[in-house]
Amino acid sequence: MPYKKLHIEIIDRVGSILMQSGSRFNKLSITTLRELKRAFGELEADPAVTVIVLSGYPGESFAVGADIAQMRDFGPAEGFAFAELGQSLFAQMEECGKPIIGALNGITMGGGCDLALACDIRLGSDALLFAHPGAKLGIITGFCGTQKLPRLVGKNFAREIFMTSDPYTAADGLRMGFINRLFPAASFWDDVVAFAGRIAAHPVEPLLYGKKIINASEDVELKSGCVMELGAFSSLFATEARAEKMQSFLNRKKNHGTR
Fold first, then answer.
1. Using an 8 Å Cβ cutoff, are 50 and 200 in contact?
2. How far apart are CA 161 and CA 184, in angstroms?
3. Fewest C-beta atoms under 10 Å: which of 131, 162, 171, 237?
């Protein structure tokens, strides 16, 4: 079934999900959320994909949040169902066995900010503007932003972002720790592809184990986390990719040493 709101492409083991709503602003409508769930499921299952990139490139926005016109007539039951759909998408992304890079090419507001938080790594264009403007609309986010943003940027910044509803720049995002890297808008997609390519060159197994254990570190105490790491570390010695990568490293070192 073709996608209405997304464009999917796979190049050199990088699967890209590009949100394209047909307008300047990518809204997280019910249809878009459902399509994102399907797209992530398909790319996770595809053996040709090692890393997934999510972006609104080449448009002006990453995602501007929920479709307010769609939400306007919600009652409590509809609001609950909508928030539950979004939360199920973000949980799926966090449980995905492949790294997900959020390429924040432009405006990233409200639910779009929460969508970015569900990504493992966030790369920002210098055209990035992000905000949580729910207070202006008489609501708060229902997509876990009140829980995840403080864990990423700290409570002080999170309170400021939620309470002011102000937009923040890419430089602010880098200072707060909201984004990992900042790239010029003119070269943004090339920089994103190069960054994703470096990850895609690695075997999928250590990426999966690393993601799972790092995510679990928030919920377990140190000794239990170290035991989890011990099990993952030792099990990787049974993989063919580990043997090949180590032998390749030794071969390069030997050849370099004989020059």
1. yes
2. 24
3. 237
Taking the C-alpha atoms of residue 249 and residue 256, their distance in angstroms, rounded to an integer, is 11
On the question of pLDDT at 259 being above 50, the answer is no
> What is the CATH T-level fold of the domain 6-200, as seen in this structure?
2-enoyl-CoA Hydratase; Chain A, domain 1 (3.90.226)
Domains 6-200 and 204-257 share a fold: no
What is the C-alpha separation between 169 and 173, in angstroms, rounded?
6
> HSE on the CB side for 15, CA within 13 Å?
19
Give the pLDDT confidence of 49-100 residue by residue, as tens digits. 999 999 999 999 999 988 888 888 899 999 999 999 999 999 999 999 999 9
pTM, to two decimals = 0.92
Q: What is the pLDDT of residues 132-158, one digit of tens each?
A: 999 998 999 999 999 999 999 999 999
Where along the chain do its domains lie? 6-200, 204-257
The pLDDT of residue 237: 93
Which CATH class name applies to 204-257? mainly alpha
Query: Which neighbouring-strand residues pair with 63?
Result: 108
CA atoms within 13 A on the CB side of 204: 15
